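2024-03-11 09:14:02 DEBUG pipeline.ingest accepted 1 chain
2024-03-11 09:14:02 DEBUG pipeline.ingest length=383
2024-03-11 09:14:03 DEBUG pipeline.predict start
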Amino acid sequence: MNYSDLLKKYDVPAPRYTSYPTVPYWANSPSSEQWIESLVQAFATKKAVTWSLYIHIPFCETLCTFCGCNTSITKNHDKEIPYLENLHREFSLYKERVPAIIKQPLRELHLGGGSPTFFSAKNLVRLLEPLLNQLNLKMGDFEAGIEVDPRRTTSDQLVELYRIGFRRISLGVQDFNPETQRLVNRIQPYTMTKQIYDWARSIGYDSINFDLIYGLPLQTPESVCDMARKTVGLRPDRIALYSFARVPWIKPAQRLFKDEDLPAGAEKRKLYELAREILIEGGYVEIGMDHFALPSDGLARAQAKGELHRNFMGYTDKRTQVLLGLGVSAISESPTCFHQNEKVLNIYERKLSEGLLPTFRGHLLDKEDQIQREKILQFMTRG
């Protein structure tokens, strides 16, 4: 079977395996009590149990029509305070029921969305400082990062985040092609991205990531090569190069794209190969299935040492036993359980107002699940 035949055979949608089982195949759903018990058991050891914290901020001022994330589109910034208060309320429930969580070392904090920079600089600090002040942070072994939308990010936000300990930011770039940006409703000139990048470097951020996507409408070999060259020219430490996942039955806005505008099959694969070649020639190391990093970056060093990890936040150089997700739709995991919060904002808020964890669904892992999860993790991180 030649390359063309293989491409046709395997040109089908597939998961990124940030979990196993993947979310559509979760079946053995836990109650809130079972989820809490899995956390209690995970932390019930004399050894240090490291953990990661993910905070989901769903708000965006405009809808990017390619997006597959859980978002809430609004220009009403009065939503900031009630939402951050609910995040504090949710963490308080965990602190009450799993007291060990504030004693064990937190290795990684990540804010995603949505657009976390929807929050003002003042409200980002109001959200984060009370949480960080309660936690066991092993400085030097703790990393805080945030996804930023260059169209909605200010220097004040970056300065305040740096002041409270953030050293890594991830810029949503997607593509530099103006025609593609127009079709996906995300007008973001190269100069705008460069401005945020330059601010971050001047402030002192030592790890900057670009999120790029191939397979978007009207992308061509020429435009993708231009995207990759401009990225190499700016020199971010990490690059995520994702395949566009078209799921119009889940995200109706994607129905706005015409089939003829979307690269597919061998054409789409060629876009990836062109970008990959430019990134590698530019000095980047290929990481797993969809990331690249400079040799000096923590991801590349972790891969070289066989310590690379992958979870719901993607590739990371910090393997932890527990991932706790706060916020609407946030996903958590323990060694024996997956847990997802309510995906509808008002239901999430109502449950918290009643003193309940906002459990939506999850999956209790049996022994076979745990074995397969570890095998897939090893394959995704070590080949």
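2024-03-11 09:14:41 DEBUG pipeline.report The mean pLDDT is 93.
2024-03-11 09:14:41 DEBUG pipeline.predict end
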